[in-house]
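Bench log, entry 3. Co-assembly request; chain sequences pasted below exactly as received.
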Amino acid sequence: MAAAGTGQVQIVVQNMSMAYGDFVIQKDLNFEIRRGDIFVIMGGSGCGKSTLLRQLIGLKPPVQGDVFYDGASFWQGSDADRDLMKRHFGVLFQAGALWSSMTLAENIGLPLRQYTRLGEAEIRAVAAYKLALVGLSGFEDYYPDEISGGMKKRAGLARAMAMDPDILFFDEPSAGLDPLSARLLDELIVELRDTLQTTIVMVTHELASIMAIGTNSVFLDTETKTQLATGNPRELRDHCPDQRVREFLWRGVEPASLTGA
Amino acid sequence: MPEPASTTNASIHCERRGSGVLLIRLGGDWLLAATRPATVALLTELAGPEAPARIEFDTQTLGRWDTGLMVFLSAVRRVAESRSAALDTTGLPEGAQKLLDLAFAVPERAGARRSRSADSLVVRVGKATLQTLDHARELLAFLGRLTQSFGRLLRGQAVFDRADLMTFFYQAGAQALGIVSLISFLIGVIFAFVGAYQMEQFGAGIYVANLVAVAMVREMAAIMTGIIMAGRTGAAFAAQLGTMKVNEETDALRALGLNPMDFLVLPRAIALIVMMPLLTLYADLLGIAGGMVAALAMLDISFVQYLEQSFGAVQLHDLFGGLFKSLVYGTLVTVAGCQQGMACGNSARAVGDATTGAVVMGILLIVISASVLTVIYTVLNI
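Structure output for the full assembly:
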């Protein structure tokens, strides 16, 4: 069900390095993401996956290197240019990050109100539709603290999709979800990609999900502080020359048929 | 943990055998909740000059055991490893062997252990001083960013939610009326009380009205309102913004291309800075009313006399001087509260620290600027 991204190259990460103060987390990252990819940023805990995501969406400047969206530099430009580019992004944060002083409908309506000329009634209709897409019909007037963690996550997705973004970024989409909800979310992600041609970039180490829907990936390593491999996660699992990558993707237990090869 | 119902006392006996072998016999129940024999002497001996080359265990009389035993065994193993003595664990129960191996399976990460030694007094004073300087710099930078934000507001480029602004007007205005009324009224009463007692001795009782009116209008109303707002609204701002930071709500705004400075801080700043002079004006009147109640009760003055005296004492520049001060205090309370909130770390403790910081910093800034402004007013003869 997960065909490789067929479109042209959309996102290029070039020589990117990230650090907190003097402490380097990752260096020399180079990879490409194609339109329609479901791109997975993976690696062990604390390897800098989330930090990489923050640099891709403009929350943290890289210490070195840059990322290009459709050929345009993201970090060289002015803040205003960057803000314009950000309008094509949708971001789902780990715990949803819904604005707690607003109802779900208002959460989804905020970007629409800021960046479109839609009237209140239309905004309300869009919010209801987006909530229905993630299975939250009827929850328009609930506040985030009145719904469960999984629902917050889905509402966060509805908000991320509010502006019909070109690229959707996910930070640990299946964390904190039960297996069934996690699978439903996977299916929803594929559906979004197929119907809206949305490019998906997600940080996760949920193997089931990576194998089921990932079409391309980059593997970050904590020890060497750089990327070990990039490519389709299923191919990496079976054919990656680097044993560390295979071990990770097999949960540490490689089948004998492969290790012997 | 409750003491287990029936325990046999834990015991330990050490036996030196030939060729440097030490046999440790463990008996009884080695439970965390029960009394266990002291093992410090043994561990010191193991690390000392007469350390054995090999340690063995005999646990034939060992009863029940739990972490109480494992802590001791871990200590023995650590000492044995540091002295490179052989540790023969075959005499231990199978479960204990496995647990011991598990505890040592992952070697300590190099550099992970923190030194627990405290810095010397000089170092700590130095660090604290540098921190204070950093802090002052951050506050100034924040004031700068807030000014830029007001600039965008004037050019109509600042994006925030109008409904939010109304909420903050309500929170920083109407909701504060009760406490501002009470405090300023009582301050008026106290001033009149003290003043009346002193001035009556000179037959100048009527000047209590001047004292109360001038003190309230020029200084006290603004200061007291400022301190109240630092405690209730500045703290609330810090807690709200800090929690939003922890919750990634601030990041969600930035990811959308919205400036948190405009969206979150600006409406709070507008609300507080607009409300402060209004509250202060209100506190002026309540303070004078408080003074009047006390003065009428203690002195032989009429209501009209007191009122005339009060309004005669206060001139327009006193009033505007006081209101200007309140504007300054309002800005400072906003800056202290919002800066602490926006710079908050990612934990519950950080939110608590930010809230405390907002109140302490707010009051400190008010008192410092009050002194400075009073000197400036005196020099300018206002």
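Chain B touches chain A at residues 159, 161, 164, 167, 243-244, 247-249, 251-258 (CB under 8 Å). The CA atoms of residues 243 and 351 of chain B lie 7 Å apart.
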